[in-house]
């Protein structure tokens, strides 16, 4: 049975967080730097174009998730033939998707100035920006398969190392370009070129780690159907994800203005950075779950579900508390006082809702890993459609805050009333056991953290990076002490499977049923 060594798990998680730290530091530095060099309107146009091309992710059709699942599964079962078929079939599919994406970009760019409220002086820039970013996304489909293979190999350390290098080079080049008076198109060119270079480097690494045979004979119809059965459900979730988190800027841009996008994006971007902390941790759970399912390790699946969500909560709970208490100061120090009044409410609404989602980061990854994400897809799609409807209805009377509420309300409902119960039933874990084991410790550890931050804020409100650092240091010491005590007591990874409930996995086809002893 395949087992991932603890050292490799540590390397995967630590490198993911190092990648996150690099992205966050670069983003915290670059966002205000670009904003103040380009202005509100140009920066809003930047966000709008990347939001539009973000919808191109729909054309992935769930192929990436199929690559990740089946690479993990075929490695666990030592099926080299199946591995080659998955890679080659996926690569051919992505080439077709990329060609279609390029044609679509050419069509949209012709009408970009009529579809959105863009100032006349930016019409030409918007058109070229869309062409540039759309072409990069089209090329990124086939190139991106290298990253998926590395994830399937569970070599997140190598994946993240190339990403860190690309981020550092991109940051340096953008700073140099802006210092020399270059504009929006130059910055965009640098932004989209570095990820493609990183993908090429990853391709060389993949061929060294896992020699693959590339050829037309491995483009297999049966493999495509097998992948389509899995990725079709994933595609629904991708659509829902775009509806939930990629429509806000487009709705605001079409119903308000490009400048309003900037104010919304300031609050939403901070929330995105917070979520990346959990994403960096939770991404390892998909291949781990797939390996556990393929080898019949049911105890491992339940441990990933409970202990994995405990670690997700340990990561996101203190971040949520920090952003609610110090969010105004963070926005002021980051981009300026004028953004606080409008961006802070967006920040609070979004972080409260998304914390419920990220605290259950392991849950969705387990469903993907065992191929049981059909119900999740339906619920998430309903949530996404509700999001768009509510955002459109609320954005006119309440502005960008109404758009944030349109996102938060459906997310609250699905994360509270659906996901916990669904996973507990699927894996045979009692709800009371799950809530206690996964979330009691993170909640308790956050109490002294909150008290410490409130006391620090009563002492002085931070208005500079140095003052924020003092607050963060004090909060970190308090929370770190609690974590150290929990680690010493062996509470971080503890999970005892209840003796009254057993789970059985039928491997072919994959199915999960629950037997309860009388």
Keywords:
single chain, 518 residues, mainly alpha, two-stranded antiparallel sheet
In percent, how much strand structure appears in the residues?
A: under 5%
**Order of strands across the biggest sheet?**
1-2
| Radius of gyration based on Cα positions | 23 Å
Number of helices: 19
Poorly predicted regions are 499-518
Distance between the termini: 31 Å
Helix content: over 70%
Instruction: Tell me how many strands there are.
Output: 2
Order of helices and strands: HHHHHHHHHHHHHHHHHHHEE
Overall structural class, as computed from helix and strand content, comes to mainly alpha
Explain what the structure shows.
Strand 1 and strand 2 form a beta hairpin. Helix 1 packs parallel to helix 7. The two termini are 31 Å apart. This protein has a two-stranded antiparallel ribbon with strand order 1-2. Helix content is 81%, strand content 2%. The protein is globular and about 60 Å long. It has a domain of 217 residues. It is built from 19 helices and two strands. By secondary structure, it is an all-alpha fold. The C terminus is likely disordered.
């Amino acid at each position: 049975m395949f087992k991932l060594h603890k050292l490799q798990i540590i390397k995967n998680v630590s490198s993911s967080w190092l990648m996150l730290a690099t992205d966050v530091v670069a983003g915290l530095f670059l966002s205000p730097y670009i904003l103040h060099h380009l202005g509100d309107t140009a920066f809003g146009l930047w966000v709008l174009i990347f939001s539009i091309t973000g919808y191109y992710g729909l054309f992935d059709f769930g192929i990436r998730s199929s690559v990740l699942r089946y690479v993990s599964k075929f490695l666990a079962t030592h099926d080299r033939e199946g591995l080659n078929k998955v890679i080659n079939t996926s690569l051919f599919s992505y080439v077709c998707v990329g060609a279609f994406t390029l044609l679509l970009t050419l069509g949209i760019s012709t009408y970009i100035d009529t579809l959105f409220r863009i100032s006349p002086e930016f019409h030409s820039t918007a058109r070229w920006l869309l062409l540039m970013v759309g072409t990069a996304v089209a090329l990124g489909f086939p190139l991106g398969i290298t990253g998926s293979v590395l994830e399937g190999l569970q070599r997140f350390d190598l994946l993240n190392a190339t990403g860190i290098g690309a981020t550092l080079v991109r940051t340096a080049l953008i700073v140099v370009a802006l210092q020399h008076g270059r504009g929006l198109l130059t910055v965009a060119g640098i932004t989209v070129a570095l990820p493609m270079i990183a993908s090429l480097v990853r391709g060389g690494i993949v061929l060294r780690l896992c020699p693959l045979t590339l050829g037309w004979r491995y483009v297999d119809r049966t493999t495509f159907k097998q992948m389509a059965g899995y990725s079709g459900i994933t595609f629904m979730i991708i659509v829902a994800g775009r509806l939930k988190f990629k429509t806000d800027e487009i709705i605001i841009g079409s119903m308000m203005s490009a400048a309003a996008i900037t104010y919304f994006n300031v609050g939403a971007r901070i929330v995105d950075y917070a979520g990346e902390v959990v994403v960096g941790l939770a991404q390892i759970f998909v291949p781990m779950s797939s390996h556990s399912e393929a080898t019949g390790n049911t105890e491992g699946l339940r441990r990933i579900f409970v202990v994995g969500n405990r670690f997700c909560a340990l990561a996101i709970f203190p971040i949520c508390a920090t952003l609610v208490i110090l969010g105004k100061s963070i926005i002021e120090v980051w981009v300026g006082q004028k953004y606080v009044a409008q961006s802070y409410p967006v920040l609070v609404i979004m972080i409260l809702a998304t914390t419920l989602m990220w605290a259950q980061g392991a849950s969705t990854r387990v469903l993907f890993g065992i191929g049981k994400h059909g119900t999740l897809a339906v619920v998430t799609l309903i949530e996404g459609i509700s999001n768009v409807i509510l955002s459109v209805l609320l954005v006119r009377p309440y502005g960008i805050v109404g758009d944030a509420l349109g996102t938060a309300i459906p997310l609250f409902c699905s994360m509270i009333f659906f996901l916990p119960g669904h996973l507990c039933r699927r894996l045979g874990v009692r709800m009371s056991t799950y809530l206690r084991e996964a979330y009691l410790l993170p909640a308790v550890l956050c109490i002294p953290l909150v008290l410490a931050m409130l006391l620090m804020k009563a002492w002085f409100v931070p208005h500079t990076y140095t003052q924020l650092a003092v607050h963060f240091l004090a909060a970190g010491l308090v929370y770190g002490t609690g974590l150290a005590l929990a680690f010493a007591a062996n509470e971080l990874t503890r999970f005892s499977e209840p003796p009254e409930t057993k789970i059985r996995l039928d491997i072919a086809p994959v199915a999960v049923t629950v037997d309860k002893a009388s």
